[in-house]
Amino acid sequence: MDQIHSLKHQITSLLESVDDFASKYAELATYNAPIIDWHHSGDYRQTVIRGLKRFRSSVEKEKDYLQAIASTHVPPRDLPTNAPHLLAVWEEVTRAEWPIGCISQVLECPDGTQVKVDVVAKGGDEWIKVNTIKESRLMAEFREQDAYCNFDYSDGEEASDQGFGRDQLTNSPIEQVALLMKSAQSYRRLPHLPTPKVKYVLNRMEENPEKGYPDPRIKKTLDAIRSLGAELVLASDIRQTPSHIRPPPTEPTTRILLDLSVVVALCCDSTHFALPKSSEELEARFRPLQLDQDGQITLAPHIPVTKDLCAQLQWETQHPLIQEIQERLSSFGASPEFWVTEEVKNRLPKIAEIIGGEDEQRRARAMFTGEEDFWAGSRWKGREGVLRNMRVEVIAADGWEKIDLQELSQSPFRQGFANVCEIMLAIVEKQASACTLPTPPPPPKTNKSTSHRPARQPQPGVTLASRLPSAHTLRTFLAGLKHGMTVLTNNRGAVGKVTREMGISEGIAYGREDAKGKAVVWVVNPSSLSEWRRREVEKKNQVFLEANGDHPLCSSFDSGPGLSLVTRPQAITSSTHPVPRLELSDSGTTETEKSCRSEISTNVPALSFPPPQRTPPILPNLHASHPAVGPNQQHPSTANT
């Protein structure tokens, strides 16, 4: 009974240790990608250590089992228990280098084989397998082999052909390690990631026991395991304290690459024009006045573009873009550098010319030339902070293409992100080149009765390339990644697609650069060029008031340049579209911004993205078979990036 009580005490302590780890260290032991996203900070991390809950359940069952035996007060002749194995596995969990991917999981390999791994450590770079076999059990295997070899075969060569000769050493540990090594070699990972190293733990055997081993084959077994390429750990080994890397809070680098979507957002009207002072004013900014069937003044119904613009303005009131950039960069000792690719610089003027307003076009020019005041007329004028001298430099077109991904090896995440971008870019460009091939001529018409009908053009299907980020977005990502910059983007959908293919839900090893806490990607909410719509609504409202001057409610409205809407409930009655009153509003007013945000957040439900869905990767053969979890919501943006 002493053995039972001892095991019961050990299992109870083990259960407490597991609970303590789960509550204090499990989150720290999981992988957190170096991505900044204020709105969705938890979407780019390894969500759980797979197998931890099931392992705890096994420990709890073992505790109940030992408790039941102890309550009988009758010691069993033989005590079948999993306690030694559970204790040994947990010992390796506490010694494993973070991030820890999983505990006691069966991993599937491309060839269909399955292998049980007790701990996946170092973000998948290390597989740990525990074997609690004793010397006595190994000797029993040898005796069984000897008995088979000594069997009285009629043909002496038959035994040799069967492979059971004394000269050929084989036993369960060697076979287990051989399978682990083979599985590790074939296990699918991203091309830049190393083959997992196998650590094989024999926690009940020593290198050189005091009385030696009774059979030389035991020593040869240890040598054979090492010769297979595994790291052998024995009970007699002196082991170092594990290193647990905990990257500091992520912050941008001093050099920041702006993608097209963010350059557009920095120029757009919603980023600089005065914030609405109420939820009603927010709705009315992009929806003109109209008379409904009952003769009441209401807001015109939403059209797709106004829904998007209102949503973006709502996000801006909750967390302004300029404010976030200022807060992130204010701790820098030196001024931040902003960069774009030549492709972005060339595309921005065309976008601004087509859908941008006068102020938005001016900002797009000032960002590069410095000849005009970028902050003129902005609500941030006088409060620019580190962004006072807003200038953007341009990366040479061929500068980033010559940089090899191997130069990013100090950051497995940066290297992996770039690797996936290159793979995706090759697919997108190949698909694009295939689409440019001349179409074959149509077949001759045979039915004269239908010859006058135009031929039906086949609709393009959903191709693999159509589900990937655009070639422009991928090239922008690669330029920033290869130059060691933080990529600032609002293309959350593209970032989510790349991280899914990287398999961050399984974890990735931290590199030397990752441990510094420098962000590889910085995600903000989108904001499209909206000045055209705001001014269009102001003009329509002006015309509406002039045309309906005899309406009894029109006398409640003021008119003039720079019209904006603020709440005046007594001016309008409408059950469907409550409309506030028109008043003059100074776009430079900033004193009431905080109260405006409070008013809007109180009256309008907070906008948020739906939680990330567990979706299969787009490129199923790119990484391991376990699906990654990441953000997959693409937000509306006028600029197609």
TrEMBL record:
Residue segments, region Disordered: 434-463, 574-641
Compositionally skewed regions (Pro residues) per UniProt: 608-619
Ranges of Polar residues composition bias in the record: 631-641
Taxonomic superkingdom: Eukaryota
Protein name: DUF1308 domain-containing protein
Organism: Cryptococcus depauperatus CBS 7841
